[in-house]
Amino acid sequence: MRDPRPPLLLLLGVAAVSVLALTHTGAIRERAEAAMGRGMPEREAGLARGFVLGEDERIDDLTREDFRRSGLSHLLAVSGQNVALLALLALPLLAALGIPLRARLVWVLGLIAVYVFLAGADPSIQRAGVMGGLTVLATLAGRRSSRFYALALAAIVTLAINPRIAADVGWQLSFAAVLGILLLGTPLREAIAARIGSRGWRRGLADGAAMTIAATIATAPLIAYHFEAFSTTTLLANLLALPAVAPAMWLGMIVAAAGQVPGFPVEALNHLNALLLGYIAQVATWCGRPSWAYIQVRLGGGGLVVAYLAIATAAVFAMRIARRRRLSARCRNKRPAGEPGSRTPRSPSRRLRRALPLVAAGVAVLATAPGLLTPPGYASPEHLDGLRVSVLDVGQGDAILLQPPGGPAVLVDGGPPGDGLAKKLRRAGVERVGVVIVTHDQSDHAGGVVGLFGRVPVERLLFSVLDRQTIAEARVAGAVPARVAAGSKLRSGRLRLNVLWPPPEALAGPHTGEDPNRLAIVMLARWNRFSMLLTADAEAEATPVRSGPIDVLKIAHHGSDDAGLSNLLERTKPRLAIISVGEGNPFGHPTAATLATLASHGVRTLRTDQNGTVVLDVSRGSIHVSTAD
Fold this sequence. Notes:
Elements: H1 8-22, H2 25-35, H3 42-53, H4 61-70, H5 80-96, H6 101-118, H7 123-140, H8 147-161, H9 169-196, H10 201-227, E1 229-231, H11 234-258, H12 267-288, E2 294-296, H13 301-332, H14 348-368, E3 387-391, E4 400-403, E5 409-412, H15 421-427, E6 433-438, H16 443-452, E7 458-463, H17 468-476, E8 480-483, E9 489-492, E10 495-501, E11 522-527, E12 530-534, E13 552-554, H18 565-572, E14 576-579, H19 592-600, E15 604-607, H20 608-611, E16 614-619, E17 622-627
Parallel strand pairs: 5-6, 6-7, 7-8, 12-13, 13-14, 14-15
Antiparallel strand pairs: 1-2, 3-4, 3-16, 4-5, 9-10, 10-11, 11-12, 16-17
Helix pairs in contact: 1-6, 2-11, 3-11, 3-12, 4-12, 5-6, 5-7, 5-11, 6-7, 7-8, 7-9, 8-9, 9-10, 10-11, 10-13, 11-12, 13-14
């Protein structure tokens, strides 16, 4: 008899191919990104990269805001849905090549490993990859897999790999969504199928709608807790987008794979995918633009527990009602439960009732344990795994250090001369700076940069207006100087810096006698869903920038009077403001008017003269703030 187990040689071969692919994920990812941009409009190309690779840097701000407000932003981050769709796509293709089932599962296991690293290995994709791999291994072992068992193992394995992952909001949402689908998916599918039918395309529609509704219900309390906001249209938007999501994912994955072959014609596939992605974007617009589509809510730890207990209790009653209806239908058909041909289904409500105390205890622990579910938007310092932003205490000046994972450090301004900037950078673990940006030509911003050349390697120097001597010293030190203006974009890893001011036409001609603050570079920094507006010395009253809602605002010009600040706060709605200012400075910064404006808008404010260096450690969905005071 033929041994059904996959031969050892095949396992070793797949492992070798997977390791080889993992060592070249950077090149594979670049080819995939390029392929998904050929023959597609810019917006749809950005969405395709977001759907398949979680690469949302090239999606315009308005589209990203539509997806957020409509509750579709999860499509722009790689999750378990991607792993499931990858397996569903790969299995029939491998079967068409005549590969036996167990060998197909081995290849799928290797594909999952490669895809996890290709997509960035974020917490949610780690969880999805581990769970998918465990399910495949259980199938290879010839045993009936338990989805709850796989989910529990996924939690244990991901926590063993990185204990800090439990504080990641994406990880929490991912597990909540999967648990909701496991508990509520079946009864919801039965209820939907009872009304629309369960044959042909109706079965697929019932499955998709049930999973969408279950995941939405299970994640709603966590979203409200962490982000203090909730999309009222999320369920409608997900149901409308449902028919196009899987085909768009599949086409994107096929193009990403085909793009590894030089010259492969992917334009036809991209044209088709652009239609699907355009439709999904239109759904996001329909459901995200109304003023009532996104509401602000406040849900503390106790509210989180109550919300999940209410959901679980409602689910128990709903499933008990559904079971009674099935029993009534069986009685009407005159087929007692014990007769041949009949089957007594296990009550899902009984399973949920048994799990209810465990679920409640888990939520209660999460809601009260420090560092796991902390006040909305913040995480404890031992759970850091992402972007670090340091507003350095350099006295009366500005120096902001951004350290993204997977990319070189970016320094915005260097403070006044003689403040030991190089030593501060080394203390922050920076041995080389990828980009130094001098926002404008004044010594309290540019002076420290001059002293940096020759002490710390700098790759590039960006500026709007800068004196020739500084540019010459940068060249001597090996840095490449370049001028930037509104519309310029910079990337370092997943950190994006978009220049919003000054406009290119303002930089033409001589600037003798002109206030340099009016030409200061204003930038919007983005990392995943985090955003920070860096205003340098450009007061809002003189620089009309449009950034949309942000998380953190660096107050312009050390907190000087700014008649446009109130309007800026209304537009941007920051959760935190930081003022870089020197202690006892002769200018009276920050002014009483600026502090009063911030207080009237309820914005938490930190100052380097009182708090020292302010450090923001940003992970997905959370910010931890620490100071040197």
